[in-house]
Amino acid sequence: MVEKISDFEEIVKQHENMIHHLIHKCGIRDYNQEFYQEGMIALWKAAKTYDESRGKFSSYAYFLIEKGLLSLIRSQNHQVEKQEACVSGLSMERARMSDSFEIGFDPYLLHMIEENLTENQMKWFTMFVLNDRPIKEIAATLNVTEDAVKNWARHAKPKIRKLLQM
């Protein structure tokens, strides 16, 4: 266990290469020294929590540093996935909005309609109202009966009327 800062400085001198080794072993390009810093934090934790009765310090430090680096990698990958999902969602929203502009339909109203209709009612609205396709063709495309499509329309129309009156 570390008692003084000078003790930790000695530990760093002895084990700093271990941090560099693990960064290299994981194939990390550490331009901002972020992973090195994580390794130093893990080394500090190892020095603070080491118990001599449980084995060699170097093995314990190696384990904590490797665990810290892998946690940081996972965290960064998770952030990248969230950013990609956000960008993908924005791209889809932009595409949907540009489609509504192309057909001369208010994107705000379209969004309100989407929020109020069921999935099947929205299929009817998109294909029948926006794309001007006949009921028979919609039923064939979606592999349902014409009556099902007419039923979607019957339930969707009052919802749309209510939105238009707002």
From TrEMBL:
Which InterPro entries does this chain map to? RNA_pol_sigma-70_dom (IPR014284), RNA_pol_sigma70_r2 (IPR007627), RNA_pol_sigma70_r4_t2 (IPR013249), RNA_pol_sigma_r2 (IPR013325), RNA_pol_sigma_r3/r4-like (IPR013324), WH-like_DNA-bd_sf (IPR036388)
Record-annotated RNA polymerase sigma-70 region domain positions: 12-77
Keywords, ordered alphabetically: DNA-binding, Sigma factor, Transcription, Transcription regulation
Q: Which domain of life is it from?
A: Bacteria
Q: Quick check: keyword Signal in the entry?
A: no
| Pfam families hit by this protein | Sigma70_r2, Sigma70_r4_2
Domain RNA polymerase sigma factor 70 region 4 type intervals: 115-157
Give the protein's recorded name: Sigma-70 family RNA polymerase sigma factor
**Biological source species:** Aquibacillus rhizosphaerae
